[in-house]
Amino acid sequence: MAWYTVKRLIQGIITVWFIATATFWAMHEVPGDPFIGEKAVSPEVEANLKARWGLDKPPLEQYWIFMTNMLQGDFGISFAQESRSVNDIILERFPVSAILGILAIVFAGLGGVLYGALTALYRNQWPDVLIILLVIIGISVPSFVFASVGQLILVVINQILGFNVLPVAGWGDISHMLVPALVLGLGTMAFLTRLMRSSMLEIVSADFIRTARSKGVPAAQVFSRHQLRNAVLPVITVLGPSVASITTGGFVVENIFGIPGLGQSFVLAVQQSDYGVIMGTTVFYGAFLVLMVIIVDLLYAWIDPRVRLE
Known about the structure:
CATH topology of the domain at 94-261: MetI-like fold
Number of strands: 0
Helix content: over 70%
Shape: flat
CATH class of the domain at 94-261: Mainly Alpha
Structural class: mainly alpha
Order of helices and strands: HHHHHHHHHHHHHH
């Protein structure tokens, strides 16, 4: 288990280095200039601004400075928000995105396991057909469509009742989090439901399940200790990539619901060509997602000893 952990950490470090390198060079190829906005800027002023931010140096020297600072935990300075470091923006905005993402993962994980198990238990019956229909819709429709429809439904309900059942937008207490988290987790929930269903159907016909039933083990115990525990392993495997999809989808959902998260800052940085914030948040998100994948892999290895033995 120790060697498996070390190997996964080394692979994670290499992945983060690749993300940082690709992000840096991609920013140098993107058209536009963070110092040219609505107001005209003279060549002298533009040259002074580039010298101030170190953009007048050769690309290789800039890359070395960027990687050195990143190793020290410094993601640089925002070009659009003067005197604000990217670290400050991340510390201020990421907790909001993290809370929203955790709630979305909880909704997606619990719903995926529950509905997947129900479809397997009621195979080819009306609960199975209904849930699979909803799964197809959940996978096909993007999260921003669900966000817009969810807001419209909330507006109609609040108007009919004459008071706000749940806020339409904004950020504050738990009532502001429920609908955005549910919308953000719907696509992942649909995917996990389909995965859980196929996994449950494979486990049902396994030899050890028939052996347990032949020994007279109660049906509830067979389901909870044998079927569910083994069928949930593929779901745990994809939780890491699911964090990636939820985080990426959160960029749009945060803007629609007016949530002051890191995704909203990233979208604003793209609009302003704020290369410092774009590179810093991309590397931060990449490192965070790699860490989540490693944690899931270690959890999977702890649950299934065959993984670490291989």
